[in-house]
Amino acid sequence: MADGSQSGRPFRRGWVQKGDKLLMFEDERLLVLRAWPDVRAWVKLPGKVFRGFRPVEPLLLYIGRATHPRYVQRALHAFKKSESGSAATPETIERIRAGFSAKQRAAQMFVEAFPAELWSLAGKLERRQWHLLALLSRVPGVDELARDNLALAFAMASCWVFADRMTQPYRTARRMARRRRVEIVELLGFPSRPVAVRVLSKLRPDAISVRRLLYLREALRAEAIPKALLHLPVLDSGTLRILTDPVLRPFAAHSLLEELATDPHESEALAYILEDTRTMALQLDVRPAPVRSVRELRGLHDELARQINRGKLVAFTSMAIPPPPFAGTDVIVPLDSAIEIAAEGRQMHHCVFSYVPQVADGQVYLYRVLGPERATFSLRRTHDGWGIGQIRGPTNARVRAETVECVHQWLTAQQGVAAEILRSEGFSSTAR
Q1: pTM of the model
Q2: Which one of 4, 48, 194, 258 is most buried, counting C-beta atoms within 10 A?
Q3: Is 358 helix (H, G, I), strand (E, B) or coil?
Q4: Percent helix, strand and coil across the chain, each rounded to 5?
Q5: Domain end marker among 318, 338, 359
Q6: Apex CA 378: angle with CA 308 and CA 161, to 5°?
Q7: CB within 8 A of 295, min separation 6: which ones?
Q8: Residue 130: inside a domain
Q9: Do 274 and 347 fall into the same domain?
Q10: Average pLDDT over residues 127-134
Q11: 255-291: per-residue pLDDT in tens?
């Protein structure tokens, strides 16, 4: 199979199992993963040489999905519904089916090379799954730590992020693994206190990311540690977002945090609603008391949104919106006027209308998503192009992984290899 090494042309898509390696040929890169027990990764771009690589994207999710017994059936169905597959010949369909089947076999063989428990443990993470597998394969004894305190093991797997002047991360991780946990957290920049170990052990997998752990570290370093960090039985992404933001935290009463802890699937969306509520309150010079319940939060948010929209509708709708940086598709539609943005906010029950000045200034652009589910996302201007800001469903709800993947694929197609590199190097689709 040609890899584009000489010509610089895009790769031919498909997965191949070769010895202990899984070769993932994508449009603009070749990713090579080595299986257990020597977990490593390399990437190759068209016309470039291979380089060592630490994938941050949820590879285990993508690979695991391909092993599903009905994967070929589902993938072929999606192909037939696509523009390229709708008029495909029987010969083409059979060739595509064979490609999906080969991908499934390669994925199954690769997964079977790993200890099932450790693959499942790393798969709980939303990002940097490969980092944890590499750590587990190279540092003896860290598997026990990962079972008991996944967040702490995650930080060890990316220890160069948390510790300064790290030149040999795995050697450092081996030294860490021989120490007490309170010493490990100190080496990672957390306070050398048992409370730091205890708080880290409370984190649900959805709350574990480099950015969230860095915010948590700052909160634990503060003189007055938020009491909810100590008293809540578990910490999900939403409650952690609130508790580690010194500006947002005073807006949430402890009763609200306790209620969020009972519904971790909704907590992140509610954290965004709380942030929107705080922003609107400041704009209206309103100083509400700490919000005590989810019901109270939703009611306050909706009332402030009505006031904001009434007060700013005339001013904002007169703002000129620049053309979109990228064309839309049948399912991804640019919001190219303030009126469209206002309508999107009303339909989706969120405060996207407040972004109008940033859109008019050319720093943000907003798009409507019609499939695979209804959503809204923002593009933010970066130093080297455009990157995805937030992707949210109705009432700021989290969207499915398929929706995030769809948006990433669209941006990659629009922006080319630069977008792929950004995504591979850790670009996030969520704010924190």
Answers
A1: 0.74
A2: 4
A3: helix
A4: 55, 10, 35
A5: 318
A6: 115
A7: none
A8: no
A9: no
A10: 95
A11: 999 998 887 777 888 888 898 888 888 877 888 889 9
